[in-house]
Structures are given as C-alpha cells and as structure tokens.
Amino acid sequence: MKYFTKAILGSMSALWLCNVAFANITPSIGESTPENMTCHEYIDLNPRAMTPVAFWVVNKDTDYKGGDFVDWNEVETISVPQLLKICDEQPKSKITQWIDKLK
Questions:
Q1: Can you tell me the distance from the alpha carbon of 72 to that of 70, in angstroms, rounded to the nearest whole number?
Q2: Cα–Cα distance between 63 and 39 in angstroms, integer?
Q3: What are the beta bridge partners of residue 38?
Q4: At residue 34, what are phi and psi to the nearest 5 degrees?
Q5: Quick one: which of 32, 77, 87, 99 could link to 39 by a disulfide (CB 3.0–4.6 Å)?
Q6: Do residues 20 and 43 lie in contact, with contact meaning Cβ atoms separated by under 8 Å?
Q7: Closest to 103 in 3D by CA, of 64, 49, 52
Q8: Where does residue 38 rank: exposed (0-12), middle (13-18), buried (19+ CB within 10 A)?
Q9: Going residue by residue through the chain (103 aa), what tens digit of pLDDT does each one get?
Q10: Of 69, 72, 73, 101, residue with least CA distance to 85
Q11: Could you tell me if residue 62 is left (phi over 0), alpha (psi between -120 and 50 degrees) or otherwise beta?
C-alpha cells in the first residue's frame, strides 16, 4: 500500500507539472499565425515552412477571376526571396503588410 500511495502521488505531481507547463505555453499558441507573424518570426521559421506561410499570405483575401491563385512555384521562387529581403530590412514589421508588394 505504501508503494501504491507513492506511485499515485508521483503521478499526480507529474500531472500537475504538465498542467503548469501547458498553462505557460497556452497564451503563445496562435500568436504566430501568418496573420499576426512578424518578419523576425518569419525569418526564424524552418525553411520548409517559409513557402506555405508565404503562399497563405499572397493568396489570402484575393479576388481573382475564375478562382485563380498565385501558383506555389511562383511563390517559392519569387515571393519567398522578396519577403526574406524585406524582412531582413524591417524585422519588426508584420508580413501581411507586404502582400501588395509580393503580388
């Protein structure tokens, strides 16, 4: 019984620590969505994530005729390098403010 009680208390302590850790992380979840992302955060992304984020930014709220959109390859080869250059010069700005310049 003594070991059982220690095991339960140990599990409860571990669960409590996980809850505390998650509570500290929770406010930051969702703050770095492409809509709110700063250039500094964009530069810090894994390079594999840069094209999807730029694709989202370039194609967000577009009203092209016939449901067209900016092609993935075009975003990868043109928009990502442009956005990296802009973000290198102005790291505190939001990436969404550069949508018109990237199109």
A1: 7
A2: 25
A3: 94
A4: -55, -30
A5: 87
A6: no
A7: 64
A8: middle
A9: 555 445 444 444 444 444 444 444 444 555 557 788 999 999 999 999 999 999 888 877 666 666 666 778 888 888 899 999 999 999 999 998 988 887 7
A10: 101
A11: beta
* Residue corresponding to tokens 């939001």: 94
Q: Locate tokens 């703050």: which residue?
A: 31
Q: Which two tokens stand for residue 17?
A: 């620590």
Q: What is the DSSP string of the chain?
A: -HHHHHHHHHHHHHHHHHHHHHHHHGGGTTTTSTTT-BHHHHHTS-HHHHHHHHHHHHHTT---GGG----HHHIIIIIHHHHHHHHHH-TTSBGGGGHHHH-
